[in-house]
Amino acid sequence: MKAPEFWGKPPDRPGWQAHILAPVSCAVAAASRRRIKRAATYKPQVPVVCIGNINVGGTGKTPTVIALAQRLAETGNTPHVVSRGYGGTIAGPVRVNERLHSAADVGDEPLLLSAFAPTWVSRDRAAGVREAEKNGAGVILLDDGFQNPSVAKDLSIIVVNAGYGFGNARVMPAGPLRETLADGLVRADVLLSIGPENAQQNFLGVWGEQIDCSHITGDLVPLATGMDWEDLKVLAFAGIGHPEKFFQTLKNLGAIVVQAKPLDDHQPLTAGLLKRLQAEADRIGAQLVTTEKDATRLPAEYRQKVLTLPVRLQLNDWSALDAALGRLTAQKPG
Questions:
Q1: For residues 81 and 113, is the Cβ–Cβ distance under 8 A?
Q2: Does the model's pTM come out above 0.90?
Q3: Does CATH place domain 48-221+314-331 in 2.30.30.40?
């Protein structure tokens, strides 16, 4: 589902639609507050790092989980990822196996994450965490779940798109937030804003005074694969939270984006859809290209035909996060 345009308006000019929907948003915020205040039903024996957001939709959580998994592994830890498996049919808990599972089974994000760390899909997050612990997890990376109280968290990292910020700062349906900004930030240990320097400066100008927790910055940078994108004509498609960022990245690499097709987040990539995209690409003499996450949903017959542009999170300074992770892994066994 595409987000309404008024969700992205400045907080001081939220739009008339936000005012009309304000009573419903107040009810949603109150319900969210009551749910989150429930005591955690399970307290793991190993550290739990939650990577979540206050916004609805994509903010960069998946690249953040990948970066943390790699960082923890480099320092001798054994991270496991636990995810709800949005869009998958398997309730779990089950460990993702890319040889056995498809994105339709477990969701596109867990399938991608499983290449970097043991990944568990479980609609019951506490059950997923228990399975990870039984199977040797030294640290749990809880993918999403910031608003879910079922598992006690040792470190909560909120991820936000620096260019978009918190939109009009209203709770759904009047705005893009799952809970009020104040309620979310008071529980956060770290706020990670992702975007280029100009977006970071604007983010601080609008939201800086409301940030009381540790604030770190980073950006998504293309992974060097040896692919020469310069002057390559492409038809780019993406079903992620902010597909325009993907299209701009291709342009920055020198690709000629003849057509850009934004899709709904997690939209199924059916054979019919790919057949239409391929026919259009052939007509204009362009190469199909998509994101690494979208590639997990490609029909088998198109996996060799569609190019993928992987990106990785690059933090401007790891020191604060390294210190927090170091304290956690020193305090708990694992």
A1: yes
A2: yes
A3: no
